[in-house]
Amino acid sequence: MQILAFVGFTALVAVISYWFSRSTDESSSDGYFLGGRSLGAVVIAGSLLLTNLSTEQIVGLNGAAFREGILVMAWETLAAIAMVVTAIFLLPRYLKGGITTVPEFLEKRYDVATRSITSALFLSGYVIVLLPIVLYSGALALSAMFSIPELLNVSETTALWITVWGIGIVGSVYAIFGGLKAVAVSDAINAVGLIVGGMLIPVFGLQMVGDGSVLEGLNIIIQSHPEKFESLGSESASVPFSTIFTGMMLVQLFYWGTNQAIIQRALGAKNLKEGQKGLVLAAVFKILGPLIVVLPGIIAFHLFGDSLSNPDQAYPMLVNAVLPAGAVGFFAAVLFGAILSSFNSALNSSVTLFGFDLYKQYFDKNASEKKVVKVGKIFGAFLAILSMFIAPLIANAPDGLFGYLQEVNGCYSIPILTIIVVGYLTKFVPAIAAKIAIFSGVVLYSLSQFVLKPMVIESGAAYPHFLHVMAILFVLNVCIMLLIGKWKPAKVGFELMYTDKVNIDPWKNVYIASALITVIVIFIYVYFA
Question: Could you give all domains of the chain from N- to C-terminal order, each with its CATH number?
Fold first, then answer.
């Protein structure tokens, strides 16, 4: 029953995605990489949510909530503010310039080398960190839900490899042969199922705790574990309250405003109004995110206590415990869609980055758009296979799956955010400043987190939180760029030219909606404080 529900819903999504994307000309770059610049607000919002809300979020954050409680909601609620900043500040500039990739803007602002270095950074981050973690977390969840080791009579390690490759192959077909529009349509469908199914998990969980009453269940958990409902983390927590004002907002702004795998959905908007509406709509749902990615972890802690050796297994175990057998199959299909979304979104963005920013630039400057798309697909297949080999090797990630993901991402997120922010806010900072900032950011952060931090902790001393380190390096690299700009300014000031690819008249209610979202986020923090 579980498997039938799983296969049936997955097949239905694939058929609908094909139907709605069949008319898109995917031999052209805009058609394949940006869905023909035809995406509306609802599709953008759904795709943004599902690209983000995959198993590394659901499994990883619920595992973190199992350990620490509601304070880890910072990763969700503060995302809403970053999204409205992107809608107001970054997206109008992206669409005005008619760019396909974020590094494409960096070429216009700085030079070709800066674009290539940034693309290489994105690609290395995707293949070493993002793609393998999506595959691993997805395989962990599905293996637990369907009891793959017992079903196939294999070890947990073998089951992990089998599930990783199953997800990877299906995701590759979506991303490589379907293009962005097929990915975005399937995302929008699965987003509905994920939100509905995701909300049912805590409801059923609270009913189980409260003997049929959701409110009674919530009251029992709050009274039994009041420490789990404190929003302000201490300095020893994974998300200290002070980090909200330092590196947390920088990470959020990078992810929602400059990360190619995410912003590519908004770049495919039919006009600025639709893009801004999509971002704001997604921000509204992010505020509700803790109900799906935090509360179940706390419920699992109440039900399973300290019996779990690996907190990242809390969510799959809760799903199995509270859902009927048929519903488990349906929800696993929705979760599978979320896994595919993050995987194929990152893969589609990798194909975009390689085709535009590396292949056409260094291998065949005269390549037709059709050839760029074809070569990009071949590269995507290679990248997918590589990530499938890496994924099972991260089973023993330190500090939990989600914490590991965020810390390692800092190697490339802050350097890229630095040069984009300075690039838009200044006119005369030269290309050499961007290159130095990228090199400085990557090297100093790597030295800090992977050389100095282990040495200091081993000696018994305290070390600054990685989000504080990110903020310090961001300020340092901005200062370096501004000093270079003062000492050796560019001869010609940068002016962002309007390409007329899409209408850039803003949505008239964007400021009001953004202000309301910001007030709600602040209220949530104050309430739980």
Answer: 2-528 (1.20.1730.10)
